Automatic annotation (TrEMBL):
Pathway the protein takes part in: Carbohydrate degradation; glycolysis; D-glyceraldehyde 3-phosphate and glycerone phosphate from D-glucose: step 2/4
Keyword Magnesium: no
Record CDD domains: cupin_PGI
Catalytic activity entry: alpha-D-glucose 6-phosphate = beta-D-fructose 6-phosphate
Top-level class of the enzyme under EC nomenclature: isomerase
Name of protein: Glucose-6-phosphate isomerase
Family statement drawn from the similarity comment of this UniProt entry: Belongs to the archaeal-type GPI family.
Family annotation (Pfam families): GPI
Keywords of the record: Cytoplasm, Gluconeogenesis, Glycolysis, Iron, Isomerase, Metal-binding
Gene Ontology CC terms: cytoplasm
Iron listed as a keyword: yes
């Protein structure tokens, strides 16, 4: 039996960086079609800001192993909608996941394949359990970077398709200076 070597790494709790991790950057241009307000999207696209960065430590996609990653989700809005991660189901849909809030303010939108949505607020110290079969997207509702850790089965995979096409049944927007979770007018089952 070949045993893997255990490891410990220190997340920089200010920046969210995991030393030695694989870095992925998603700019606004990577989120084409995701936001409601197409005019506001086109306007902000001139700057094409970084929406989020992911620092991932991933293993071979085998049953029983675990990956972990931090995400630094920047503050911002497209029209009334707060910046968010793409959101996905797992390719192996029954795989669960754990998130842990490190810095900043935000929350997670979760959704069943039938479109039943849940919103869970996150702050530093919040643990979110993502049950099997739920799509999940994080949203930065604050004015500083929202940093969190995710731990997920190495064989979970990412299924972006249906969220990229249809989005979530709820939107997280700012209205009169308040964070509101409202129905997505374009949602169709
Ligand atoms: O994969 P998305 O939806 O762009 O969101 C990024 C975050 O979600 C994860 O894919 C885990 O669910 C992480 O890699 C990262 O924390
Ligand atoms: Fe996930």
């Amino acid at each position: 039996m070949e045993y893997k070597k255990p490891m410990g790494v220190d997340i920089d709790l200010e920046t969210g960086v995991i030393p030695g991790a694989k870095k992925l950057v998603r700019r606004l241009s990577d989120l084409k079609g995701y936001f409601q307000d197409e005019e506001a999207y086109a306007e902000l696209l001139k700057e094409n800001p970084v929406v989020y960065e992911v620092y991932a430590v991933e293993q071979e996609a085998k049953d029983g192993d675990l990956n972990f990653a931090t995400t630094v989700l920047h503050p911002g809005k497209v029209g009334k909608e707060f910046f968010f991660t793409k959101g996905h189901y797992h390719s192996k849909a029954d795989r669960a996941e754990i998130y842990y809030g490190i810095k900043g303010r935000g929350g997670m939108l979760l959704q069943t394949p039938e479109g039943r949505a849940e919103w869970i607020e996150m702050r530093p110290g919040t643990v979110v359990y993502v049950p099997p079969y739920w799509a999940h997207r994080t949203v930065n509702t604050g004015d500083e970077p929202f940093v969190f850790l995710a731990v997920y089965p190495a064989d979970a995979g990412h299924d972006y398709g249906s969220i990229a096409e249809k989005g979530f049944s709820k939107l997280v927007v700012e209205e009169n200076g308040e964070v509101r979770v409202v129905d997505n007018p374009k949602w169709k089952e």
